[in-house]
Amino acid sequence: MKKIILIIIYTFFWRNFLRIFIGLKYFNNKSLKNIKQFILVANHNSHMDTMAIMSAIPSRFIHRVHPIAARDFFGHNLIQKFLMRYLVNATLIRRDREDPNRDPINDMNKMLQKQRSLILFPEGSRGIPGIMSNFKTGLGYLVQKNPSIDVIPVYLDDVYKTLPKGKKLILPYNCSITFGKPIDFKSYEMEDILETAEKEILKLKNRN
Amino acid sequence: MNKIFNSVDLIAEIQWVIAIILIILVFATVLFWLWNKLSPSKLVDEMQLRTRSWWVMCFIFLFASLINPVVTYIALGFLSFLTLREIYSLLNLREMDRSVLFFCYLCIPIQYFLAYKGYYTLFLIFIPVFMFIIIPFLLVLAGETKDIIKSMCILPTSLMLGVFGISHLALLISYPEMNTNGVSGKALLLFLIFITEANDIMQFVWGKIFGKHKILPNVSPNKTWEGFIGGVISTTIIGYFMGFLTPLTPVQLILISSSIAILGFMGDSILSAVKRDFGVKDMSNAIPGHGGVLDRVDSLSTTASPFFHIIYFIIIMS
User: Fold this and answer.
1) Which single residue of A147, A198, B159, B220 could bond B272 by disulfide (Cβ 3.0 to 4.6 Å)?
2) What is the CATH number of domain A2-207?
3) Phi/psi at A92 (nearest 5 deg)?
4) A171, A174, A175 member nearest B98 (Cβ)
């Protein structure tokens, strides 16, 4: 049931809306088809980013892909939680770490062990438009614990212009989303992981 | 489905044009295919890509313009939308201009609705009069005066380039006086687009083969005197032989075809200068081999409204 709802929303509505009306171009999203489980890491400037990535995911396993969202931002009330859970397929995590027993890293790790894929914005928040800020360490812990899972870099070019931070009106702009090849980590030191991931995302920027 | 195809009435002249277009496309495809076999080069590859895009564009255009007027309006409106989107994606507009951009996009359905209804006067003044007053005022309401003059100039002008000119194509098929006494708006539309695009191609071909003396050295290195003059002459000849689509006399045909050629060149140069200012070669990469949508319709946006008014004047006079 959930799968059908997600397919209708993303594969039929958002994909066509983004492609025809907004002017989003998909590059290389076919490469996802052959990968069973993955962590997508992308640059983050707008709520539109999640929609763009979700709409590019093959409908066959869209119900197994979960964007990671902050509970303090998206979980204010029950309705919002419900919408995030069923219409965005999101997993809400705590950024504040108030409760030491519920470490957000553990939550994400559990999802990965259940064969789920994650969409991660390692910058942590939407930040300044068009500028990539430093990556948070959460991605590093996940990679260290699950070295066998493919980490795929995604670059969103100009997608933030369609819905900048703090605005409510969605406007069309020509923009693009590019998927890269799974990252090949040379070393699993925390700093190296973050640096490699950032570099791979920026590499996609310069390719177009 | 029947309802859509009911209004298809292909008069003999239009059938001729479709045949001519198909022959040209087949000829170009075979020519570049053979050329590529004999001596492959980068130029031929690009020409093949361009020809392939022409196939797609011709079929979309013939389908959209001949099936049903409503389909034509929606297709032309979408063309305007693509053009505006291309312009606004390249412009670095201020953040508070976003809400005004929404109204710019809103102009498209209004303008095409006016064309559909055939409200001639309102159609003519809606953008050049009303929007040139309303959009600057909306920018004032947005409340930031820094750099406001730039936005005040760019936004209405983009409407002239993307919406006003192209929407005259729609007016051609809906305006009652264009569709009586043996005059067919559809045929006129075909004539205009055929001549304009032929002019683009001819100027390109003459420039590539004989081009030596640059006509606008500061704007575009590809535009030459040889291309311009050769383009105008060959467009006039083509226009003369395509005259069976129009109710015009031979003298009128020659005058109109040559002025379309010159106007098309003007539109092309205006957009070249704009692109040079933006620092890009093409507006986007929407059409393989051609660049953006606006790169293809730039000359149409300047030829469409003068053509309409000349024809209107001639029909009223006779």
Assistant:
1) B220
2) 3.40.1130.10
3) -90, 130
4) A171
Q: Where exactly are the structural domains of chain A? A: 2-207
Whole-angstrom distance, CA of residue A58 vs CA of residue A54: 9
- Mean per-residue pLDDT, B192-213: 90
Please give the single-letter amino acid code of residue B223.
K
Nearest to B99 among A164, A169, A175 (CB): A169
Average pLDDT, chain B: 87
The pLDDT, as a whole number, for residue B1 is 46
End-to-end Cα distance, chain B? 39
By residue count, chain B amounts to 318
Q: What gap in Å lies between CA A192 and CA B284, rounded to an integer?
A: 36
Would you tell me how many other CB atoms lie within 10 Å of the CB of residue B141?
Answer: 10
Grade residue B291 by pLDDT with cuts at 50, 70 and 90: confident
pTM of the predicted model over 0.80: yes
The size of the A-B interface in CB pairs under 8 A is 27
Residues 6+ apart with CB under 8 A from A100: none
User: Is B110 exposed, middle or buried (CB count within 10 Å of its CB: 0-12, 13-18, 19+)?
Assistant: middle
Interface check for B73 against chain A (CB to CB < 8 A): the answer is: no
- Please check whether residue B168 touches A, CB under 8 A: no
Say if the ipTM goes beyond 0.85.
yes
Residue B100 burial class via C-beta count within 10 angstroms: exposed 0-12, middle 13-18, buried 19 and up = buried
CB-CB under 8 Å, A158 with B89: yes
- A161 to chain B, closest Cα gap in Å: 9
Which residues on A lie below 8 Å from B81 (Cβ)?
172
Reading the block at residue A77, the tokens are 């009330």
